[in-house]
Design goal:
Length: 143
């Protein structure tokens, strides 16, 4: 049985990462997440990530490397969620992003993410995403 596939888009600057809060409604309404979404049957992960950012934030992004993946179950269906590094053209502060699926967005410190009401599937990615960002910044993981 084929699994559903989704992408999580990890845009970061230093130790801050772009996160967004979903509109209210549905299972995950009002919760924070890494931007991204479902991969359509006819598209690659990279195409899905570019499309999702265009639809949800109104910006064109460049996709970097693969970071990690996890599996989760939602509505009785098994899915795989893969995270990719994403490069945004600007920080959305002076020139706000045009949101279609979210109430708000912000650049959050890595430590802050653990304290927010984050969607479960993205939290499964969080330890690997944190390690990836820390390694890119040249800091070692604390044991």
């Amino acid at each position: 049985m084929p699994r559903n596939s989704s992408v999580a888009c990890i845009a970061y600057s230093g130790k801050k990462i772009l996160i967004a809060r979903r509109k209210f409604g549905g299972d995950m309404g009002g919760r924070w997440e890494f931007p991204g979404g479902k991969v359509e049957p006819d598209e690659t992960d990279v195409c899905a990530a570019v499309r999702e950012f265009k639809e949800e934030f109104g910006i064109d992004v460049k996709i970097g490397g693969y970071i990690c993946e996890t599996e989760f179950e939602h509505g009785g269906k098994k899915s795989v969620l893969r995270a990719y590094e994403v490069f945004v053209p600007h920080d959305g502060i002076e020139k706000p992003y045009a949101l279609s699926e979210h109430l708000e967005y912000k650049w959050a410190d890595l430590a802050e993410i653990e304290k927010l009401n984050f969607v479960d599937s993205d939290m499964k990615l969080y330890p690997s995403v944190k390690d990836y960002i820390m390694s890119k910044n040249g800091t070692r993981k604390q044991s």
